[in-house]
């Protein structure tokens, strides 16, 4: 991809997410739910792996509306939020003020972070890698900004689930045109930088919740982002879904079948 095409892609991403930030009231942003809701399986898993956050320096790449940045700051972390969208960073900083915490915001592309090397204890990247074309440069930046012994954690969709691929084709107004979910080649690329790379998959049988939204609740993917809608669910509304979550704990351990899941969490350590 040429530099001109990359610049156009970054502009489209920034414009799309600027509009999203401008149309989202601060009091409607789900901070605690993003990490504590029943359907927030990926983030609950990541929190267990991270351990205590107080005093840790965290870089949140692709911070979006700031849910994760604010949540980490509420746990006592020192957070730097990075996003290509100026309006998203403005929203994240203001969201922090609403919750009584300070977020350091920086507008930047992930492939060229103007940050010191060996700076952060943890790097967190949620739903961001699949928006990036030059993924090798992004992972290099993640590795560079981590302290020796520092760890990264990421969440991104996988390319191979047929239900999610139908959802993507339908959700033309709630996703950007340039994004592409992760494949096995991306796993190998990350593994080049993090030799101890591990990964775990989520959402296989439990994706029946998406089918419910469409067939039973009659919510079109362009009317509401399903991946945000799940955070408004409670154990009371998901009583029927809990066994599917338990089933996934087994199914996502099966080689190859695991790659039919919706999302993948990756994590690794800078040696």
Cα radius of gyration in angstroms: 18 Å
Describe the strand arrangement of the main beta sheet, using strand numbers. Answer: 3-2-1-4-5-7-6
Order of helices and strands: HHHEHEHEEHEHHEHHHE
Are there runs of 5+ residues with pLDDT below 50, and where? none
Structure classification: alpha/beta
Q: On the 0-100 scale, what is the average pLDDT?
A: 95
Count the beta strands: 7
Distance between the termini: 31 Å
Sketch the major β-sheet: 7 strands, mixed
Tell me the quaternary state. Answer: single chain
**DSSP strand (E) fraction?**
15-25%
CA-based shape: globular
Continuous helix count: 11
Helix content: 25-40%
Overview of the molecule:
- This protein has 271 residues and is α/β, with parallel strands linked by helices.
- 40% of the residues lie in helices and 17% in strands.
- The chain has eleven helices and seven strands.
- The protein has helices at 3-22, 33-36, 41-50, 67-74, 86-99, 135-145, 162-170, 184-193, 208-215, 226-229, 242-251, and strands at residues 57-61, 78-83, 104-107, 120-126, 146-157, 198-202, 263-269.
- Strands 3-2-1-4-5-7-6 form a seven-stranded mixed sheet.
- Helix 1 (3-22) runs parallel beside helix 5.
- The chain is globular and about 50 Å long.
- It starts with a helix and ends with a strand.
- The model has no long low-confidence stretch (mean pLDDT 95).
